[in-house]
Amino acid sequence: MTNDNGMADIDLATIKTLDGFDVAGKRVLVRADLNVPVEAGAVADATRIERVLPTIDALRKRGARVVLMSHFGRPKGERSPETSLKPVAVKLKELLSADVLFLDDCVGPNVEAGIAAINDGDVALLENLRYHAGETKNDIGFAKQLAALGDIYVDDAFSCSHRAHASVEAIARLMPAYAGMAMMAEINALSAALEDPKRPVMAVVGGAKVSTKIEVLTNLAQRMDMIVVGGGMANTFLFADGIDVGKSLCEPDFVTTVKEITEKAKASGCEIVLPVDVVVADSLAEGVKSSVCGVDDIPADAMALDQGPKSVAMLKDKLAGAKTILWNGPLGAFEIAPFGEATYALAHEAGEQSKAGTLISVAGGGDTVRALNMAGVAEDFTYISTAGGAFLEWLAGKKLPGIAVLAGPASPSHSAVA
Q1: Catalytic site residue 366?
Q2: Around Cβ 113, how many Cβ atoms within 10 Å?
Q3: Does 173 qualify as catalytic in the annotation?
C-alpha cells in the first residue's frame, strides 16, 4: 500500500550517481548539511561534516574542483557572526588535511573570482546560503546565481531534502544533478526499511505526543507488520483502550485519531504492540522512587515513564521473528535514570541481531540517535540517519522535493551547462 504522491510514487532507480562520471577539471557544486553545533567559535559535533567527507574525497581524487554550500542556523537573510560557516571551514580543513578556501558570500563576482582561482582537487566553502532570502523562497533567480558557480550539482544533504529551497530543489532543475554518497546511503537504507523491506518488519515509534506523529503512524500502519508504540504516545493508546493511566502524559483529545490509526492497522494486518507493564513514579526526576505495575494497575497519582520487564520480554520475542526494524523515538523517558532501561534493552537486542546478520536495523531522529549512543549500540545498527524532519516526512509517506527533483530529468531550456 502507498500514499498518493508519496515517496513510493518516485522511481528511485532513476536517481543518477557520480559512479563512472568524469569530473576532472569540473566545478562540482556540492549541497551538504553543515548545520552543526558550534560552541565558543568551534565545531562541537562534526557528525554531519563527517557524513559528507566520502563524497568530497572521491571528487578530489578524481580531479574535481569541489565547491561546498550549506545553510547554517536561521539568519533570515541577515548576516551575523553567530551564523557564519567560518568555524566549519576550519573543521573541514582539519578533517580533510587540506586547505579549504572560505568565501565570505555564496553568490556574486567575488565568489565567482574565488572559484575561478581554485585548482583540480581543491575545496572551497561558500558562506551561509540563508544570508540571501532567495534560498528559503526557492527563488529561481538565486538558484541561477548558484548554478553559475558550477558545472554539475551534487546533493549530499538528505536532511534538507524535505525543503523546497533554492540550493536543494530549484538548482537541480537548472543543471546536471546527481546524488552524493551520503544521500544514496540514506535513500537505500530508507527504501530497504520502507519501500521494499524484508519481512516481517517492525516499526518502533516513540515520543511524547501522538499529535506530533499522526501522519507517521497512519502511513506505517498501512506498511508495517507491527508497530511498537512507546513513550508518552503509548499512554494515549492505552487510554483509548479504556485504561486509566493516572497522571501519565496523555492526549485525550486524540483518542478518535488513535482509534482511526488502530482501524487502519487492523485492515492492513499490522499489529499495534502496546506495553503490558510499566515503570511508574510520582514525578519525572533524578533519584525518584519507581516501581513496576501492570498497565491495568497504574496508581491514580503516578506517571508511567517507561515500559516494564514483561513488555521488554514480549518485544524481544517479537523482534526475534522480525527481519527489519525501523526505529524512531524512545520507549520511555530515557534521559533520566532508570527510565531508559526498556529502550536500551531493545536497542541491545536489535544491535546483536544486526551484528549477527539476521536483522536490518534503520534508526533516525535526534532522541533515537542519542538513546542508541547512550546504549552504546549505534555502531551495531545497519544504518543511523542524522536527518530529523526529512526522515519523519519519508516515514509519513510524503514526497521529498529534494529527492523528487533528482529523479526527474533536468530541463534542457534551463540548463546552466554549455
Answers
A1: yes
A2: 10
A3: no
